[in-house]
């Protein structure tokens, strides 16, 4: 891998043009994981108050970890307690301490992004490219109410860089370019960022692209079907600095012509999204104000890619259109030298239309268009107040309350036909249309976070949060009762069919989170952090079995039909991280060791059964070395047996595995060359959260338990 960056301030446009033309193709960008050690992450684009359970992933040329994936969620797995629920090549679903999918609030530049697919193929982080990423904040424990409502699982906030400006009378030109190649899936990609600015105006462009074939599994596993993808992203940001603050407008376009999903019946055959975000940031004598307004338009299509049968017979086209818009406003009011009152409000609107066009000549998929969600609407209005107090230099607290009003509705639906082939769906549509679709919730939340540093090198943190989240539109309004129609619903990757429930209640979670950190030796010294947690969820949205599914011949298929229901659940566990210097000398450079460990237990409190997609015991051990321009790392990733599985969904067990990864990089002036080998021993393993290997099942008829993990891959 080669990466180069440049930053110049000049009044010569000719110099700018020459610099741009001379920039070589460069390497894959790097990301660094570090802990947030301050209550206010001002270095992270003023993302707000954070505690010991908050982590930052930022774009840094001196980073220790080279991103070897096009999927930001995969990169976040280096954070203890964060897991990636397998999906497509650049769109895994993040899970924080056992709570995943849309139970985790994800924002991009301050705006929440709605998933626009019945299989959640386009989650928010699929619109964030690791090559152009500036910073991502992850809060695993008790998240302040100012970070948003309508979630019970934590916060992931991704932000692009604030506009850069030049000194008065000068012109600033800065940028970087990068490119990468991965051997396993023949993935190629690159990115470019460039800024031109004077002291008042700033114009920045960021673009990236990536393309990959199906990857190979570990030793003897062969190619893993439906793992190919292609995508491009473009963004233009204009900033204007005035006497009353900073105004920023960002327009972005994300396009993917295809993406395979090894654990879904369908693949993505188009995802096109454009977004416009405007933000105002102002600082005043009384405090600070930030206002963000946004709109995103997503067109999403699904069908079968070649390795699932292609479209020779028309396949099963599915078409989804989502329009989201909203506004958020936050004000930090300095009450005195030690207290800040943070108040704000948010309005978010989602409009969803999900239809499945008829297939000419098909007896089952026609003659009508199947209306899955017709004119679905979800509006949320939230207000909050939060008091951030520094009682002493050693003791601080963040206490907040929030209320979110959520209103949902949808129109009437229709099946492909009313004949015998679609009788179940025809009857279900009739019953659905006769029912009242309107759903209103009032969700109250509160958080309290206390932080105490009794002595140098010791920090204690305790927090409590009451969070509530209303069901999404699919959980309420997915009405199909046929085997095929219900199996097109579900972001769980298990092959089962899912049916909505108009009677669902909001999920209400009580979370207790703690953290203790011992440190010494300064910034490069040793550190041990222990983070226990416990979450009890009333009316957790899970699923109950309502039927066994059969194939076209009427024989059992091995899959079941499930309906979303409310149950009581709990999650408990601990995250541990540690680091320590090993040596530092002129002759042998500097070396340090880092380690993480995560333990999680999630269960249905009524039955005592395990919950779905819970990560088994896992950890990492990394040895890092730096000498002069060279930096290197050897990392061992350890995952235990997954033997606690959800019996309702027929979840599969997976065996323990160990992966060895090595990386090295050399920096020469503004250019960085790097090389990485993932899974050096070419270990064969199954993904614990990968679901069922439906890509192989559709092609061969053999049901593999889970998609295979990637074999040895060299990237550079």
Automatic annotation (TrEMBL):
Per UniProt, subcellular location reads as: Cell outer membrane
Q: Which UniProt keywords apply?
A: Cell outer membrane, Membrane, Receptor, Signal, TonB box, Transmembrane, Transmembrane beta strand, Transport
**Database matches in InterPro entries:** Beta-barrel_TonB (IPR000531), Beta-barrel_TonB_sf (IPR036942), Plug_dom (IPR012910), Plug_dom_sf (IPR037066), TonB-dep_rcpt-like (IPR039426)
Regarding the membrane, this protein is recorded as: Multi-pass membrane protein
Signal peptide annotation: 1-29
- Identify the PROSITE patterns for this entry: TONB_DEPENDENT_REC_3
Q: What is its main location?
A: membrane
Domain TonB-dependent receptor-like beta-barrel residues, every copy: 237-680
Supply the SUPFAM superfamilies for this chain: Porins
Residue ranges of every copy of the TonB-dependent receptor plug domain listed in the record: 67-155
Pfam families listed in its UniProt record = Plug, TonB_dep_Rec_b-barrel
Name the family the entry cites.
Belongs to the TonB-dependent receptor family.
Q: What is this protein called?
A: TonB-dependent receptor
Tell me the lineage of the source organism.
Bacteria, Pseudomonadati, Pseudomonadota, Alphaproteobacteria, Caulobacterales
């Amino acid at each position: 891998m080669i990466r180069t960056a440049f930053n110049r301030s000049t009044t010569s446009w000719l110099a700018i043009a020459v610099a741009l033309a001379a920039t070589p193709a460069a390497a894959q960008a790097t990301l660094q994981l570090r802990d947030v050690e301050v209550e206010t992450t001002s270095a992270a684009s003023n993302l707000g108050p954070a505690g010991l359970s908050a982590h930052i992933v930022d774009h840094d040329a001196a980073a220790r970890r080279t991103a070897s994936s096009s999927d930001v969620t995969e990169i976040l797995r280096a954070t203890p307690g964060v897991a990636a629920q397998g999906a497509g090549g650049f769109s895994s679903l993040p899970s924080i301490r056992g709570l995943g999918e849309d139970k985790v609030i994800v924002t991009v530049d301050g705006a929440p992004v709605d998933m626009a697919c019945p299989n959640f193929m386009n989650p928010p982080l699929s619109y964030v490219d690791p090559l152009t990423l500036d910073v991502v904040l992850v809060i695993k424990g008790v998240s302040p109410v100012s970070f948003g409502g309508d979630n019970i699982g934590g916060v992931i906030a991704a932000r692009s860089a604030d506009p850069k400006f030049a000194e008065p009378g000068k012109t600033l030109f800065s940028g970087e370019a990068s490119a990468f190649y991965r051997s396993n899936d023949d993935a190629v990609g690159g990115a470019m960022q460039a800024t031109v600015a004077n002291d008042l105006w700033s114009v920045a462009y960021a673009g990236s692209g990536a393309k990959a074939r199906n990857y190979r599994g570990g030793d003897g596993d062969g190619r893993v079907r439906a793992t190919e993808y292609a995508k491009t992203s473009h963004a233009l940001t204009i900033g204007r600095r005035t006497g009353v603050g900073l105004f920023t407008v960002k327009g972005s376009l994300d396009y993917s012509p295809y993406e395979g999903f090894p654990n879904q019946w369908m693949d993505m055959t188009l995802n096109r999204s454009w977004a416009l975000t405007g933000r105002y940031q102002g600082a005043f004598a009384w405090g600070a104000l930030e206002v963000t307004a946004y709109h995103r338009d997503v067109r999403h299509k699904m069908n079968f890619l070649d390795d699932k049968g292609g479209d020779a017979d028309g396949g099963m086209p599915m078409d989804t259109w989502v329009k989201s818009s909203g506004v958020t406003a936050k004000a930090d009011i300095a009450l005195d030298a030690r207290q800040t009152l943070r108040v704000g409000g948010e309005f978010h609107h989602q409009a969803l239309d999900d239809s499945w066009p008829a297939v000419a000549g098909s007896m089952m998929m026609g003659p009508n268009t199947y209306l899955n969600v017709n004119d679905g609407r979800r509006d949320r209005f939230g207000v909050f107040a939060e008091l951030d107090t520094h009682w002493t230099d050693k003791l601080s607290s963040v206490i907040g309350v929030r209320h979110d009003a959520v209103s949902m509705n949808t129109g009437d639906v229709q099946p492909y036909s009313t004949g015998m082939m679609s009788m179940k769906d025809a009857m279900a549509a009739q019953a659905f249309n006769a029912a009242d679709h309107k759903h209103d919730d009032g969700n109250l939340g509160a958080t309290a976070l206390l932080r105490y540093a009794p002595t140098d090198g010791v920090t204690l943190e305790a927090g409590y949060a009451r969070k509530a989240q209303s069901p999404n539109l699919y959980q309420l309004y997915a009405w199909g009762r046929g085997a095929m129609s219900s199996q097109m619903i579900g972001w769980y990757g298990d092959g089962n069919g899912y049916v909505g429930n108009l009677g669902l209640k909001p999920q209400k979670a009580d979370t207790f989170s703690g953290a203790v950190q011992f440190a010494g030796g300064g910034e490069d010294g040793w550190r041990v952090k222990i983070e226990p947690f416990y979450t009890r969820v009333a009316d957790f949205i899970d699923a109950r079995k309502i039927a066994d599914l059969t194939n076209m011949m009427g024989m059992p298929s091995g899959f079941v039909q499930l309906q979303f229901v409310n149950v009581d659940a709990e999650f408990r566990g601990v995250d541990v991280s540690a680091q320590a210097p090993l040596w530092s000398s002129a002759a042998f450079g500097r070396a340090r060791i880092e380690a993480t460990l995560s333990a999680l237990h999630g269960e249905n409190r009524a039955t005592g059964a395990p919950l779905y997609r819970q990560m088994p015991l896992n950890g990492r051990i990394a040895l890092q070395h730096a000498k002069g321009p060279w930096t290197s790392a050897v990392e061992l990733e350890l995952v235990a047996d997954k033997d606690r599985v959800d019996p309702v969904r027929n979840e599969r067990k997976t065996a323990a595995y160990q992966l060895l990864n090595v990386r090295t990089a050399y920096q020469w002036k503004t250019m960085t060359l790097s090389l990485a080998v993932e899974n050096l021993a070419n270990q064969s393993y199954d993904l614990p959260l990968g679901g069922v290997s439906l890509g192989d099942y559709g092609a061969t008829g053999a049901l593999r338990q889970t998609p295979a993990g990637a074999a040895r891959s060299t990237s550079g």
